[in-house]
Write a structure and sequence with these properties.
Length: 405
């Protein structure tokens, strides 16, 4: 999205990334005052739930144009060099280009973004500029605050995949999972309910919850928004889920937009009602912890899937249930798991070498020979044994002194 700051009305313009007219349009902005672009791609408006694709990570450094100092800091923190730098007139913007990835990758992108901003705080990085909806100055335009032209410089020019960049910034993943981190904003999610292990992060879980809630909100939008009697809990959970993968400042700005669009009856009291979510999100960003059930945990609210479904089930339309991924009943979760397991190709355990040939005729004979050899070694020592079908089960014994292996 393009923004012309000083235009009286209609300063925003949606540009198609694949439009053949885009290069010409951007060239026409050269020498014009205060023109901006969103770094990432959106459908209709630059809000998180309209995010289409992620294109870059970035850091806004205020009052400092010493790129060598920034590069030295990145070397010290063992972080990758940016693709290019934009001198904004009163500071500089560092960009790490990535190949376009869909909005569902936002949790991973946010982890990378947070780490880059945090690393460059000592040299003036703006701690607020780390959400995906930012607009930054367009190269070649003029900063009207001091009349300086915005210029750029290519550094590595590299365009990463998000996986490559996350490995370079967060550390190598093990078995395809994101590395563990000490940050209060990321938590490993590997509980083992019913003997099955979950993989991923709490970021990704709450991102799915947020997507489900937005689908429910969009369903009721044509009829005036979320039904009365359910608006407060829907808005509470929507903002809570958002607080797990975007900065607290962004939750604040999204709060009124969501209330105005989906829960119009709550506009007068929304800030007071939702203040606990904001306070806890800010505490998390400061690295604070709380004690809950004897454990040290993140201060943000956490709820089980069953609780979320119980609170919101009355406004989940039947025709929408199949599209939801997180806020679902136990029966649907079990059904999906069975279908997923059934769809997996059958395993050839013999081919994998798990059983080798132990269950074949040759394998049985070899196994019996091994047991017979053990018996032959034990008989002179007086080891008792119990015959068991075709094999032998040896009882535990204490060998005479000096005769152990």
């Amino acid at each position: 999205m393009f923004w012309e700051q000083h235009k009286p009305s209609g300063g925003w313009k949606t540009l198609r990334s694949d439009s053949p007219n885009l290069p010409e349009f951007l060239a026409d902005q050269q020498g014009q005052q205060d023109r901006y672009l969103t770094v990432n791609e959106f459908y209709r408006w630059r809000v998180t739930n309209q995010l289409k694709s992620l294109r870059a990570c970035y850091v806004d450094i205020d009052g400092n144009v010493d790129i060598d100092k920034a590069l030295q800091r990145l070397i010290e923190m063992e972080l990758p060099e940016p693709s290019f730098v934009i001198y904004s007139g009163r500071g500089m913007h560092l960009y790490w280009l990535i190949k376009p990835v869909p909005a569902k990758a936002l949790p991973v992108w946010q982890m990378v973004q947070n780490k880059l901003v945090e690393a460059l705080l000592p040299i003036g990085a703006d701690p607020v500029v780390k959400d995906c909806t930012r607009v930054l100055r367009l190269c070649g335009t003029i900063n009207s605050k001091n009349g300086v032209q915005v210029t750029g410089k290519k550094l590595t020019g590299k365009r990463w995949t998000l996986h490559q960049l996350s490995d370079a910034v967060l550390g190598k993943r093990q078995n395809g999972c994101l590395p563990k981190t000490r940050s209060a904003q990321v938590h490993s999610f590997s509980a083992k309910p019913n003997g099955r292990k979950k993989y991923g992060s709490i970021y990704q879980w709450w991102s799915l919850v947020h997507q489900d809630l937005m689908k429910i909100g969009d369903y009721y939008l044509p009829s005036g928004g979320i039904p009365e009697g359910h608006r407060d809990i829907w808005l509470f959970l929507t903002l809570l889920s958002l607080s797990w993968f975007v900065p607290a400042a962004r939750v604040k700005s999204e709060m009124l937009k969501l209330a105005r669009r989906y829960t119009p009856g709550l506009m007068n009291d929304v800030q007071r009602q939702m203040l606990p979510i904001i306070n806890r999100a800010e505490a998390s960003m400061r690295g604070e912890k709380i004690i809950f059930n004897g454990k040290t945990v993140d201060p943000r609210y956490q709820f089980k899937r069953e609780t979320l479904f119980e609170w919101i089930q009355e406004i989940i339309p039947d025709e929408l249930q199949s599209e939801l991924r997180a806020i679902i009943p136990n029966e649907l979760r079990t059904q999906r798991r069975k279908e997923r397991d059934k769809a997996r190709p059958p395993r050839d355990r013999m081919k994998e070498g798990r059983y080798q040939d132990h269950y074949t005729k040759d394998g049985v004979r070899e196994s019996n020979r091994e047991k017979g050899n053990k018996l032959g070694r034990c008989e002179p020592l007086g080891c008792p044994f119990v015959p068991l079908q075709k094999g032998w089960m040896f009882q535990a014994v204490v060998l005479p002194s000096g005769q152990g292996a």
